[in-house]
Amino acid sequence: MYLRRLFLLSFLICSSSLTFAQDDHWVFTYEEGGGLPGSTHLIVKVSDDGTFSASSEGLPIIESGLTKHEFSKLISNEEVSHFVELARAAKDFVINPEKPWPDCKRAEMMVIKMREKMMRRSGCMDKKWSERRHTKRLLARIEFHLPSEMHDRP
């Protein structure tokens, strides 16, 4: 009887810890693209497990279509937290939300926690967008981790 209670107590503790860890799972995503046909489309994801991944597609056109790049690496927990802090601080990221146009180059960033969007900012980019103070810091951190062939800032 004692072993059964001990097993049940251990199981409950492990289950609650696992549930807590799953509830805290989140992903930061950044995406930019659109505009002229063939313009670079970039997607960056940072997961709470430290995975930084990026994919891009754009010119030049090669035999199989648009040029594609894939990249992934692990980053520290401190760097992961830094991405979330930068995303939250980048309230100046919103770009002309009331004036979308069909061929605009767009940017979007989200923090998703357990499949629920906790924060989303998006819109059409203009020439001064990437120079806004908090947005500039966020973009600089993203580009710090990207390989040079994936850098394509308007």
Q: How does this model look, in words?
A:
- 31% of the residues lie in helices and 36% in strands.
- By secondary structure, the chain is of the alpha+beta class.
- It has one domain (25-150): Mago nashi protein (2-Layer Sandwich), CATH 3.30.1560.
- It has a six-stranded antiparallel sheet with strand order 4-3-2-1-5-6, covered by helices on one side.
- Strand 5 (105-113) and strand 6 (116-124) form a beta hairpin.
- Helix 2 packs antiparallel against helix 3.
- The radius of gyration is 20 Å and the shape is globular.
- Residues 1-23 have low confidence and may be disordered.
Give the N-to-C terminal Cα separation. 69 Å
Please work out how many helical segments DSSP would assign.
3
Assembly type of the chains comes to single chain
Q: Please give the domain count.
A: 1
> Uncertain segments of ≥5 residues (pLDDT<50)?
1-23
